[in-house]
């Protein structure tokens, strides 16, 4: 059929639609040759129906008898119909051809002489060479955008294969030189082979999947879908992965897509309490109070920065060069602090204080020898008697954990409001309202501080107010509220001892710009604070309650206190040993305990500590 005959045929078919004519063809894939039928073709690609499944993103060769072979990639698939994008199609070359031609281009013959393969340069004329393709005439008046408006030309198939072979060689070299010690587990992180495989396969997975559809699937469903894809990509790139290594690669890719990348195994490890990231090459963890260097690493600082942005954006925070410091939290309540360059000289630094999956109670602390049963019983009485309690200690000593454990002893009928910079308290009580501060926006407006939240909380009819940590001007407002009828408040402060906690509280109030004499400030503190609980971390990593001190009042210009319990330590062959000792003194808040019907319980905890048991905490 000549070209003019085909032209008449198409005109008649538009007037009288009939069944479209297709061309039988063969699709050469990595699994072998597949029969197919081509229904449409253009310079950039073709649409065809296949007789066997084909992976989206797979590189294939389309062979049309008497017309040639065309290499490309499977761009999309709907049931048995797929879209093939030719590898060497360049829109810039097509633009140049159409703009420079003053008339419609000459058509190629329908069949190449001698059965020669039609080169990619002949693709613009292929529509005329095949008998059943819609031809759209191009007018010379069409204006094409500038080169700057067009996307860059895609890499050729040869360039893609060169990159894949290089990646496969690097990964196989890493596989040959990698020594995997299975006994070290998570501490060493993934091997070089697994990390290299994830880096090579993950980008191709992202190109093949539909992000919107993947977001609706669970992790288990995604793992099932990724199994065949990872296997096919690994074979195509020449990677030799065992079934166990393939599972590790899939888990690593899922961690990158759904979680926090290399940090996910550490977050899932219940023995890890702190995660400290010092740049992309160094990650420490704390286990049983001791720091350990892990083998977990990031690809580079940009990879680490992407994980950081994923963390902070989930809680509505912002971090960049203008705001290089941020406090955030993970979905489970774990506290996160981030600092970026140029403040951090060796790269982004991340500190994660993990939130324990198992709730820590006073009973659990007694079982872990963090305090005695008598001390736990006294703290329970203090919480029930609505004493204003200040928990002091150093960094990582367990202040927030003690605050959470004491808050669990509060009467469930009371309304509690918590105020924190990064909400991490999870109180198992029915009537709890959690408030969280907000940093300023890009214009420097919209900041909400702890002091603002505290003032607003006083108007929300709270029975108790719990402040995560006292560190600024909110300290004076809290003292005012404690002295005006809001008893039973709890808070924490950084200090190395009970007396130092009182001094630091006074200093924080004085530095906030409050004009008052030292005696007046100390009188406010003495009348507001009832109990100070000191927690410390010993050199063996154990966290203990070392002092429970009652604030009695004022003696001249000095705040007087009375010790109720203390921890007396001694050295036993290089290991820290000691015992919890009661002072035997009568507490000054005994009348409050009597009012709440807890007088006998309090006296037994102070005078007969050996008779107390963990069962008493449940009553």
Structure notes:
The chain is of the alpha+beta class and 619 residues long. The protein has 3 domains: 3-149, predicted glycosyltransferase like domains (Thrombin, subunit H), CATH 2.40.10.220; 186-353, Beta-Lactamase (2-Layer Sandwich); 362-440 and 448-618, 3-Layer(aba) Sandwich (Rossmann fold). The protein contains 19 helices and 21 strands. A 9-stranded mixed sheet has the order 15-14-16-17-13-18-19-20-21, sandwiched between helices. Helix 5 (192-208) packs across helix 7, helix 12 runs antiparallel to helix 19 and helix 16 crosses helix 17 (518-528). The longest helix has 21 residues, at 157-177. The N and C termini lie far apart (98 Å). Mean pLDDT is 77; it is low at 89-151 and 170-188.
Largest sheet: 9 strands, mixed
Average residue-wise pLDDT:
77
Overall tally of structural domains: 3
Distance between the termini: 98 Å
CATH architecture descriptor text of the largest domain = 3-Layer(aba) Sandwich
Rg value: 36 Å
Helix content: 25-40%
Q: What fold name goes in the CATH topology slot of the largest domain? A: Rossmann fold
Read across the widest sheet, the strand sequence of neighbours is 15-14-16-17-13-18-19-20-21
Please state roughly what percent of the residues sit in beta strands, choosing from under 5%, 5-15%, 15-25%, 25-35%, 35-45% or over 45%: 15-25%
What is the total tally of β strands?
21
**Helix/strand-derived class?**
alpha+beta
List unreliable stretches of 5+ residues: 89-151, 170-188
Specify the CATH class of the largest domain: Alpha Beta
Q: In one word, what is the shape?
A: elongated
CATH superfamily of the largest domain: P-loop containing nucleotide triphosphate hydrolases
Number of helices: 19
């Amino acid at each position: 059929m000549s070209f003019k005959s085909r032209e008449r045929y198409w005109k008649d078919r538009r007037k009288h639609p009939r069944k479209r004519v297709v061309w039988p063809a063969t699709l050469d894939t990595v699994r072998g040759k597949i029969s197919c039928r081509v229904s449409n073709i253009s310079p950039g690609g073709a649409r065809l129906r296949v007789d066997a499944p084909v992976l989206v993103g797979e590189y294939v060769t389309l062979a049309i008898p008497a017309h040639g072979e065309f290499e490309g990639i499977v761009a999309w698939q709907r049931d048995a119909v797929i879209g093939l994008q030719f590898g060497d199609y360049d829109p810039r070359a097509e633009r140049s051809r159409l703009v420079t031609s003053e008339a419609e281009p000459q058509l190629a013959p329908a069949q190449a002489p001698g059965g020669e393969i039609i080169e990619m340069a002949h693709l613009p004329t292929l529509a005329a060479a095949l008998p059943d393709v819609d031809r759209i005439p191009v007018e010379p008046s069409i204006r094409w955008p500038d080169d700057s408006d067009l996307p860059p030309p895609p890499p050729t198939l040869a360039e893609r294969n060169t990159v894949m072979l290089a990646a496969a060689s690097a990964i196989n070299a890493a596989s040959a030189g990698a020594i995997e010690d299975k006994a070290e587990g998570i501490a060493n992180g993934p091997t070089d082979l697994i990390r290299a495989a994830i880096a090579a396969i993950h980008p191709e997975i992202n190109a093949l999947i539909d992000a919107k559809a993947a977001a609706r699937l669970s992790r288990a469903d995604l793992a099932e879908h990724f199994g065949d894809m990872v296997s096919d990509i690994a074979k195509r790139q020449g990677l030799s992965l065992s079934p166990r290594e393939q599972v590790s690669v899939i888990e690593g890719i899922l961690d990158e897509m759904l979680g926090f990348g290399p940090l996910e195994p550490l977050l899932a490890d219940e023995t890890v309490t702190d995660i400290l990231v010092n740049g992309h090459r160094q990650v420490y963890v704390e286990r049983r109070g001791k720091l350990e260097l892990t083998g977990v690493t990031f690809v580079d600082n940009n990879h680490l920065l992407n994980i950081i942005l994923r963390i902070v954006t989930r809680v509505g925070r912002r971090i960049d060069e203008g705001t290089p410091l941020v406090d955030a939290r993970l979905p489970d309540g774990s506290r996160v602090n981030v600092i970026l360059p140029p403040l951090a000289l060796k790269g982004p630094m991340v500190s994660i204080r993990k939130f324990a999956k198992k709730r820590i109670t006073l009973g659990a602390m007694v079982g872990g020898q963090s305090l005695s049963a008598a001390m736990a019983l006294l703290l329970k009485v203090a919480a029930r008697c609505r004493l204003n309690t200040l928990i002091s200690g150093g960094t990582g000593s367990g202040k927030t954990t003690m605050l959470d454990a004491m808050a669990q002893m509060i009467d469930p009928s009371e309304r509690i409001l918590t105020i924190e910079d990064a909400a991490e308290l999870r109180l198992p009580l029915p009537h709890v309202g959690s408030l969280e501060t907000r940093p300023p926006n890009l214009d420097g407006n919209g900041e909400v501080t702890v002091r603002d939240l505290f003032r607003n909380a006083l108007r929300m009819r709270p029975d108790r107010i719990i402040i995560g940590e006292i560190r600024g001007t909110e300290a004076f407002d809290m003292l005012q509220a404690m002295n005006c009828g809001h008893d039973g408040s709890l808070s924490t402060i950084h200090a190395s001892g009970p007396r130092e906690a009182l001094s630091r509280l006074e200093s924080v109030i004085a530095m906030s710009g409050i004009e008052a004499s030292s005696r007046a400030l100390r009188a406010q503190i003495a009348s507001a604070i009832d109990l100070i609980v000191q927690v410390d971390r010993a050199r063996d990593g154990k966290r203990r309650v070392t002092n429970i001190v009652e604030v009695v009042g004022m003696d001249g210009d000095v705040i007087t206190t009375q010790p109720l319990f203390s921890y007396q330590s001694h050295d036993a062959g290089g290991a820290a040993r000691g015992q919890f000792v009661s002072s035997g003194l009568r507490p000054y808040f005994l009348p409050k305990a009597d009012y709440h019907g807890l007088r006998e319980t309090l006296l037994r905890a102070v005078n007969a500590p050996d008779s107390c048991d963990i069962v008493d905490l449940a009553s």
